[in-house]
Amino acid sequence: MTASAVRVALAALAAFAAAGIGIAVADAPPLAGHVIVARTGADALLIWDASSDVSAIVADKSSNEDAERRLQRDGLRIIVSSLGKLDASAKTISVRIVYDKTGAVSPVYGAATLADVERYATLTVPAAAIRAHTVVWRDVEPGKALPAWVSFRVTGQLPPR
For residues 137 and 131, what is the distance between their CA atoms, to the nearest angstrom? Predict the structure, then answer.
């Protein structure tokens, strides 16, 4: 690539930035936790280890409503960021939200032990709806209400706060 081509590319990027057009993924804060693609077919399933989010919820002493909204919003962002790993034929996409439950502090190591894995909730969306508006759902605002087609079924409990 010549020096003039590099200058043109940089000028184009600067113009996009000045116009407020950018890559939205860079604007969204990174998500914590591992995501496993468990099923890629018609009913795609992602399993998200939300232990970091749940720890932050406990530390912030968030209410159950605020905690659910945060996990729903982050679950939607997980789905959007994982679309490339799923089959185009998927009709629904679900995220199973799990976290590590800690037990007593080990006297030997001075750290909490793993007591269990809590299966907290499942967020399910129609794949066509999420694909149609990926930019909108990648950057969901905390106070924004989710549409009726988003299903959030709580199957477990969050730790006490």
Answer: 9
Specify whether the CB–CB gap between 69 and 142 falls below 8 A. yes
Rounded CA separation 17/68 (Å): 34
Helix (H) / strand (E) element for 38: namely strand 35-39
Residue 38 backbone phi and psi in degrees, to 5: -90, -35
Q: How far apart are the first and last CA of the chain?
A: 56
AA letter at 40: T
DSSP E strands in 50-144: the ranges are 92-105, 112-126
Is the pTM of the predicted complex or chain greater than 0.85?
A: no
**CA–CA separation, 24 vs 40, rounded Å?**
25
Q: Using one digit for the tens of pLDDT, what is the confidence trace for 34-86?
A: 999 999 989 999 999 999 999 999 999 999 999 999 999 999 999 999 999 99
Query: Residue 62: which residues within 8 A CB-CB, separation 6 or more?
Result: 70, 161
Phi, psi dihedrals of residue 19, rounded to the nearest 5°: -85, -5
In 3-state terms, the chain is what percent helix, strand and coil (to 5)? 40, 30, 35
